[in-house]
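quick one, three chains, predict together pls
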Amino acid sequence: MPRPSRESYGDQKPPYSYISLTAMAIWSSPEKMLPLSDIYRFITERFPYYRRNTQRWQNSLRHNLSFNDCFIKIPRRPDRPGKGAYWALHPAALDMFENGSLLRRRKRFKLMKTDKDRLENELAALANINRFMFAPPQSAIQDTTAVAPQLVHQNPAATLPVTGSTVASSQVQRPKRSFTIESLISPDKPSVQAEEEQVAAPATAAPAPPVAFLYNPVAMTTPAPCYGGLVHPPSAYVHPSLVMGLVHPHPGFYPQHPIVAEHPGAGVSSVFRFSPTLRSV
DNA sequence: GACTAAGTCAATT
DNA sequence: AATTGACTTAGTC
């Protein structure tokens, strides 16, 4: 039986739920997050069926984004103007479709309240960092290239695991297989590439330290410095687009000078500049 | 048939 | 754009 390709459906309705379609779109993107408009574009480009009745299905899709905990809204960086926030997939939701119909998941992905609150805190902190990092020069930022005062952890890259349990019920921490368009369409063939993108889980449980994150790993491929920080309280969740591989630090990059903020914002203890100039892992 | 995920419509922010 | 609720449809057990 020939495997259906994404071209096979023509004007027929593809056998994917809105959640599947949205997840495909998000996961196909380099940063693993997309603004709503790009999710729409992904779907309409691949599935001609969705070039009609756009009001209807786009409303339904938005409903899904808000309703399902598997989608998280990441505030847009002020230096990337545009409409709407970015939408990402909760990493613990990546195996949602395993062994199942793409039309219907076995179980709805739902976060425990405590985890949901913690995630909201972290995103609020991120929004604060947004304001902080991109504020006008007279802000609280002092870009000291010299001193490294009172850090919670001198070297977050060396010490910080991504910790904790995240999900209600028996959701697993790590996806058992990659989550690509191809793997959705052909669930038997995990993609090696996507496997390599996974951040390794810590071998042992450690006391919960702050969570370090990079702002944007894509920006890290450029010579420009970018920013990350330590977030309190520690969250079990860090989106792949934000996480600095704590076990596998981002190759070629290293937290460099702490940027001392008087008021980094709720939940943020310190902010770092990450520099590509220092070393490789 | 019960349960619940998915989809629709629509009011509201 | 995003959130939410009420409701219907439909897949799974």
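The first strand of chain A starts at residue 33 and ends at 35.
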